[in-house]
């Protein structure tokens, strides 16, 4: 493998790892349920996206041609992540989970 | 015309065919035949679950929209990362967003886009599909968020779906 490709793949892996870590830190640091909900959606979008790109470029350097099956993982993840976030938020509103007092606006009554 | 030869949803068939090619190990004669069979059979078998005719009018605008959303995800992720690592407290808000889209699929796409872009999660759609409840992580001005979503996402979606 050429050094340029190696640096590129390593860089992508680092970016992916960093964003996944930030997502986890956010999950621990954010003050209430709704703000915590934002952290994991970040980790999936940019973190997994970058790791997938790294994986695709690595396997296409190794084998012949571009391995596209990994692209589907990203696509399906992008389709399912919003749904799970939506369901979590909905059930939180249904249960009347407390939100931080600085929050402007109100959740709807279910 | 397409419906008469057993393709009630040409767009769905195309997507199924492409996904099957991506899933199978390289494009070969077998995967093309299998993909064609699936693309023909699945829309027919699931016809009962699709109550409305698909409404994508200007499909060629979709890649442009996806590209813009991906770019926004990267840009907004950096802002959220800074917020997570910084010491400033977030200023969250619940925002009621008035939807002007009508097709259910378009509304789903708008809500998913809002959830995917960091900093906003769509929490609920009102029963009459006129309002979307958004939880934003860090906002100065609610109106700004509403305007940004309208300009960047809803307008293009409206053009695609009509």
TrEMBL record, chain A:
Coiled coil: none
InterPro entries assigned: PhaG_MnhG_YufB
Top-level lineage group: Bacteria
UniProt KW Transmembrane keyword: yes
Keywords linked to the UniProt accession: Membrane, Transmembrane, Transmembrane helix
Pfam families: PhaG_MnhG_YufB
Keyword Transmembrane helix: yes
Molecular functions (GO terms): sodium:proton antiporter activity
TM annotation in the entry: 6-27, 39-59, 71-89
PANTHER family on file: ANTIPORTER SUBUNIT MNHG2-RELATED (PTHR34703:SF1)
Name of the featured protein: Multisubunit potassium/proton antiporter, PhaG subunit (TC 2.A.63.1.1)
Organism: Marinobacter zhejiangensis
UniProtKB/TrEMBL annotation, chain B:
Principal location listed in the UniProt entry: membrane
Topology relative to the membrane: Multi-pass membrane protein
TM region positions: 65-85
Annotated Gene Ontology cellular component terms: plasma membrane
GO molecular function: monoatomic cation transmembrane transporter activity
InterPro entries: Cation_antiport_E (IPR002758)
Compartments it resides in: Cell membrane
Database matches in Pfam families: MNHE (PF01899)
Keyword field: Cell membrane, Membrane, Transmembrane, Transmembrane helix
Family, similarity comment: Belongs to the CPA3 antiporters (TC 2.A.63) subunit E family.
Protein's UniProt name: Multicomponent K+:H+ antiporter subunit E
Organism (species): Marinobacter zhejiangensis
């Amino acid at each position: 493998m050429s050094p340029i490709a190696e640096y590129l793949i390593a860089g992508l892996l680092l970016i992916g790892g960093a964003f996944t870590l930030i997502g986890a830190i956010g999950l621990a640091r954010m003050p209430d349920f709704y703000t915590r909900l934002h952290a994991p959606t970040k980790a999936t979008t940019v973190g997994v996206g970058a790791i997938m790109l790294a994986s695709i470029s690595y396997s296409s350097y190794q084998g012949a041609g571009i391995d596209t099956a990994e692209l589907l993982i990203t696509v399906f993840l992008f389709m399912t992540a919003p749904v799970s976030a939506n369901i979590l938020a909905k059930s939180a509103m249904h249960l009347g989970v407390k939100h931080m007092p600085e929050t402007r606006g109100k959740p709807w009554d279910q | 015309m397409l419906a008469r030869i057993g393709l009630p949803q040409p767009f769905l068939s195309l997507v199924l065919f492409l996904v099957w090619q991506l899933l199978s190990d390289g494009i070969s004669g077998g995967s093309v035949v299998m993909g064609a069979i699936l693309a023909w059979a699945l829309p027919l078998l699931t016809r009962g679950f699709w109550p409305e005719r698909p409404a994508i009018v200007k499909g060629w605008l979709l890649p442009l929209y996806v590209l813009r959303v991906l770019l926004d995800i990267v840009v907004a992720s950096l802002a959220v990362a800074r917020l997570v690592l910084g010491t400033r407290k977030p200023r969250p808000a619940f925002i009621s967003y008035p939807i002007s889209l009508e097709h259910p699929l378009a509304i789903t796409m708008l809500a998913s886009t809002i959830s995917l872009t960091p900093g906003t999660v769509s929490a609920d759609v009102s029963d009459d599909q006129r309002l979307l409840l958004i939880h934003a992580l860090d906002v100065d001005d609610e109106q700004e968020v509403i305007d940004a979503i309208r300009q960047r996402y809803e307008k293009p979606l409206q053009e695609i779906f009509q």
